[in-house]
Amino acid sequence: MTDFFKGIDAISYEGADSTNPLAYRHYDPDEVVAGKRMEDHLRFAVAYWHSFAWEGGDPFGGQTFERPWHPQDSLDTAKLKADAAFEMFRLLGQPYFCFHDADVRPETGTFAGNLAGLQEMTDYFGTKMEETGTKLLWGTANMFSHRRWMAGASTNPDPDVFAFAAATVKSCMDATQALGGENYVLWGGREGYETLLNTDMGQELDHMGRFLSMVVEYKHKIGFKGQILVEPKPQEPSKHQYDYDAATCFGFLQKYGLEKEVKLNLEQGHAILAGHSFEHEIATAAALGVFGSIDMNRNDYQSGWDTDQFPNNVPEVALCYYHILKAGGFTTGGTNFDAKLRRQSLDAEDLLAAHVGGMDVCARGFKAALAMLDDGGMEQALAERYAGWNTPEAKAMFDSDLATITQRVLDDEINPEPSSGRQEQLENWVNRFV
């Protein structure tokens, strides 16, 4: 066991007027809104890697965190880390967590050694999950940190690396199923290229498509009931990644006939790197029928890399949940905090406070999104703006042709005048709720 969180009481809801830094001010898990408990709407999950495996390094400096489970090089320290993690889940009242295989077992340098470690930790996790009631939102494989992945996993030019990746994913899917995971995620951190000078893009895309097809085939073979998710990201660590954004991923899924099998796990920080807003990525995935789950973090808008910070902007979060609610809300997905402390935030209390604040921001934004939907102002504005498409003439154009449409323009002397998009009015409307 560990006393990492010694002396800290379980986090409780104290209301908006509380000044306690370790209390929820807006997130009341048992509050019923829109017919469901807040906990069941938001489905919060802690990211095991950034909360417990990350040591505080960045591209310009090494480790700043000194945890009792460092160095993370044995099963004993892996179990100590798990003890601390599940203690934090208990203190936060966290319903879910997520993990990579490399976060929870030591790297042995061989697949057999890694597999043995993962299997032992899967059993250990099962016991901890029974004790705490915390469930697994999703599992995944780390195929980007070790040097073997430097040229990719499924897209690697070396077929032995492809084989190692396939075996690794199988082991992680097995662990996810054994722990009752509700999703399985693939993030291709190295599935891209540094330069086209040494890259056969067509072959790599075909290999990536076949690999994902194998994942889907294995899901059905073992009877895994969870959702397979792909996480888009445009760059960093690779110069260019093949899963650039939601639209790119959908095109990839369509090309390989997987659009009915695979959905997307979207991250705010990745959306920013792609030059998009998070609401754009969510709305795109929802429109294409592939929305699955979210990593709710943010990037520093003054930095050009993935800073993975906890959410603190209620208006941004509100618009994200607005589109999630419009799409029907979460099913197997949820709100994962793929976020990490700043390198100078060293204490156990900092780790708890970061999650408390992030959960409060999400709860506040979620309630604002519900209020916007209940008001219906944006939906009314959209209905009015596109009302012309409800006329018989407009509908008929889809069964017509260019020549017929041209003749109608001439006959009816059509000469459209633009109408206002009312952007500022809609921005003012949103600000009423946030």
UniProtKB/TrEMBL annotation:
Mg(2+) 2 binds at residues 267, 270, 306, 308. PROSITE patterns: XYLOSE_ISOMERASE. Its cofactor is Mg(2+). Its EC number is 5.3.1.5. One of its GO terms (cellular component) is cytoplasm. It catalyses: alpha-D-xylose = alpha-D-xylulofuranose. Mg(2+) 1 binds at residues 231, 267, 295, 338. GO terms for biological process: D-xylose metabolic process. InterPro entries: Xyl_isomerase-like_sf (IPR036237), Xylose_isom_bac (IPR013452), Xylose_isomerase (IPR001998). One of its GO terms (molecular function) is xylose isomerase activity. Binds 2 magnesium ions per subunit. It is found in: Cytoplasm. The keyword Cytoplasm applies. It comes from the Bacteria. Belongs to the xylose isomerase family. Homotetramer. This is Xylose isomerase. It comes from Pseudaestuariivita atlantica. The lineage of its organism: Bacteria, Pseudomonadati, Pseudomonadota, Alphaproteobacteria, Rhodobacterales. The gene is xylA.
